[in-house]
Write a structure and sequence with these properties.
alpha+beta, five-stranded mixed β-sheet, 27% helix, EC 3.5.4.5
Length: 143
């Protein structure tokens, strides 16, 4: 799926997402997801889903990677790409909440690499994941 081949950089990012998936805490769904976020300095921030018995407190892999990078001092808009992987039939897609967070913290053209354990993948962008997104600019009232 996607184009014929992924760049070496995106392959490394997918491998990091696969490794992050191993840390998932999923005692309820048993559905592990991993994410890897590339920052502007070339560092990779790992994320995995972390479940909670109070389901609303569960955090997805993509948000874990983004929040971890923000907590480490990286600025919104400075990220280069994110990869996400899960044990799905086709490439896994970020949920709606993760899409909204991606819109807030990443540039609209930032690549999003979605994959599965069988090696199927799809390359898209933040803007393509959430067209017509509610953004910080949506909060500004025009006089």
């Amino acid at each position: 799926m996607g184009e014929n081949t992924l760049s070496q950089q995106y392959q490394v990012l997918l491998a990091a997402a696969r490794e992050a998936m191993k840390s998932a805490y999923v005692p309820y769904s048993h559905f592990s997801v991993g994410a890897a976020l590339l920052d502007s300095k070339g560092h990779i921030h790992h994320g995995c889903n972390v479940e909670n018995a109070a389901y609303g407190a569960t955090n997805c892999a993509e948000r874990t990677a983004l929040f971890r990078a923000m907590a480490d001092g990286h600025q919104a808009g400075s990220f280069q790409a994110i990869a996400v992987i899960g044990d799905t039939d086709g490439p896994i897609a970020p949920c709606g909440v993760c899409r909204q967070v991606l819109v807030e913290l990443c540039g609209p053209d930032m690549p999003v690499i979605m994959s599965n354990l069988q090696g199927n993948w799809k390359l898209t962008s933040v803007a393509e994941l959430l067209p017509g997104a509610f953004t910080p600019a949506s909060l500004v009232k025009e006089d």
